[in-house]
Amino acid sequence: MRGFRSLLALVVLAVVLCGSVAASAQAVRVGVGFSIAPYAIRTLDAGLEVDLIRAAFRAAGVETQFVYLPNLRLPLAFAEGDVDCLAISLGYDLAGRTGRRVFYSAPTLTFQNYAVSLASRDLTIASIGDLAGHAVLGFQDAAQYLGPEFAAMARDNGSYAELSDQSLQVRMLFSGRVDVVISELRVFRYWRNRLKSSPVARSVDLNQDVCFSRIFPEQERQVAFADETLCGRFDRGLKAIRDGGKYERIVRSYDRAEDAQ
Known about the structure:
Layout: H1 2-26, E1 28-33, H2 48-59, E2 64-69, H3 74-79, E3 85-89, H4 94-98, E4 103-104, E5 109-111, E6 113-118, E7 136-139, H5 142-145, H6 148-156, E8 160-163, H7 166-174, E9 180-184, H8 185-196, E10 210-213, E11 219-225, H9 228-244, H10 246-259
Parallel strand pairs: 1-2, 1-3, 7-8, 7-9
Antiparallel strand pairs: 3-11, 4-11, 5-11, 6-9, 6-10
Helix pairs in contact: 2-9, 2-10, 7-8
């Protein structure tokens, strides 16, 4: 009898383990940028964009596994099938860069990128063309995300560079090492607030006034899928959390957290 019970326990354990593996295998793998806090915070497996996407999938009865990657790696992961979908900006030519058929979701949220400069520099930046001749630091792959005019500026400006670490962007602006950084508003605020409570604040004045030059249009974010049916399920889930108020509660929770800093 004791041997039978031991065998039964092993069978039950095997079933549980197989079920866990199956559930994990069925989770949708979502590729997101690893350096766009507060939209995606890898160490917390959370963030404004991450939480909205997770909630929309959950409303559709789908579990998720988020894969945090550098911007340059995201299209490669999609092309190679390492992720099932990507969080990207509207207008990004994912099909052209990967050679795969792509199905796009409804907009998930809106980014607002700015050219940010120190007020003490007294720069006049009313258009992308005004960036010429200045030391400009963009986020990684910004030239692919911000349109052909910006891409041309980036190509022709010998003082243009890109970084994947957007906290370093903020440090370099306030330390005077660059004239302009290209950053999304929430991202810039997030890193400025975090650096104020870090050792960096002892050597860099993070309280300097800055100018936000709105030279880019608002940019909607969406999720790009390789599977049309999964895209449809996500859209239904996204509509459900919008209609039910969960979407707005998630957005407010992140904005309140930054306002309190």
